[in-house]
Amino acid sequence: MIGNFPYIAVAILIGLGVYTLIFKKNLIKIAIGITLIESGANLFLITLGYRKGSVAPIYTQAPEGMNMVLPTPQALTLTSIVIGVATTALILSIAMIIYKKYGTINTDEVRRLKE
Amino acid sequence: MSNILTHSPALVMALPLLAAFLTPVVGRFNRKILGWFISVILGLTLGITILMAIQILTNGSIIYVFGGSDAGLTLPSGYTVPIRIIFHIDGMGIFMGLITAVVSFLAAIYSLSFMQKESGLEKYYALLLLLATGMFGMEFTGDIFNFFVFLEIASISSVALIAFRSTFAGEPAEAGFKYMVVSSISALMVLFAVGLFYGQYDVLNMATIASVMQFTQLDKIALILLVTVLSMKAGSVPMHMWTPDAYSEAPAAITMVLVAASQASLYALFRVCFSLYNISLNTVTIGWIIIILGVLSMFIGVTMAIIQKDIKRLMAYHAISQTGYMLLGVGVGLAVLSNPVSLNSFGIKAMEGSIFHIMNHAMYKGLLFLTAGALFYRTGTRDLNKMGGLANNMIYTTIFFIIGAAAIAGIPPFNGFASKLIIYESVFKFNPLLSIIAMLVSILTLASFVKVFHSAFLGPKLEQYKKVQEVPKSMLFAMATLACIIVIFGLFPDVIVKNLVHPAVMALINQTNYTATILGGI
Q: Domain range for residue A95?
């Protein structure tokens, strides 16, 4: 049971993110929602890296006779965090431009494109 | 020469990627040659892609293992699964790669004059190159996590390009924000699906996952996630809200590339359904889901298009509607995949029509967006009600518009007719109603383009457009190239279908071949 806690946390994080995206009308909060989903996905990946009875893949410090886990999920998570930084930066800078041009970041008022 | 061929998959990626980071430096020294520099780079990329296409169509798929001692060695001694990043380019991948290469090259040429007056050009070109890299990566990679990375590269650069004009007005930023939200959610859901695959099978290579696919409950969740988000990125109907905004606010040359970028997502959708799952999924259900998405896109897209007044917005809704044709044909192919008799009698034909339509769509929709850009370049407006009588001053643009409009409406002898006819014939054998809807949509498409033609080009010369001239040569060159491709494809569809489209369809259908290329003969 306790081993499933990370997965429950993943579900909660992604659920909160989706909730924020759907129900919040503030552009900054939408950005936060995306970040929450991203954290959920990252936590999910890193949880997959755990294997019972193995140690972290630090080559110089691994004890004799123990198996090391394959560091692929860690590598994936790092990549995804880096990409996430770019995404967040871009989305916040676009929100900034929108604020400059429209004077608001409420999604109800930012809709000049609606036909 | 043989070295170039061996390393061509890496070269196609490396050229635009490295040039993208070189662009600001070149721009600092000499702003004049910047556009030519980009055009040469993308022209070289196009050349290598064509070389690769010849290689693949004569000798079969190319594999490229990054970081290995030998580019073709997928399983170094001692490993039973591939651990390195592998580029796996088969008939379908190179088919999409050709579209990407042609479209991005012509976008660079078109931008030479179209973007001349804008500031921040080095950023524009760097982003264009990155977008091309991302699209090539999505189409060539054989590794599902790598696919996620390229998807993000393509979406981040396309968002920045959509919002490129936001120094003047807020609308591009608004469209960019919308697209950013859509594409980051899609990418994160793809990442989640990657996690689901890795957790079960401990591999990331698509061919290897396909070979051990169990179709468990988790695989079904992954399938649902992937189908939903990839069709969202491709702009099919229930999730199409970003398409008109993004297409209409981006600069015209970028819109053309964006069409190809959403087709790269469409390609990924087909890749997931056919190469990753193939008959292990319930082909009839998923096939019908894709067919219904397609029919909805076709119909709602075209009905929304008729009422638009903004020329690029109208064309964007048509892009949604044309995506429906591609989904329809491939959906029919997927629905009969587990039934060899119907697959051979009309399934393969339907898929050929759809896949051919992908390329045709990229060409004529690109041409139409470029003519819309030409009108915007000379008149400064996208509102159809403010245009009129432009045929008097812009003869070539008018001719190109007629060619593009005839192709999208499916009038012979242009390429749209060739692919639509294949779709009608084959889908009719599957379900006559679907075929009739497709024809009806085609007629509505014609109606709405007649409206555009009438309000923009026909009529007497307007006072405010007396001094309007034909657009500069580089823009004409880009449009003329696309128009030539459209006419040639329309005149000789059999040659194209036999040599280019049929291998692509077979690469999708034949999953054993796909896995065997990576894992050795099974």
A: 2-102
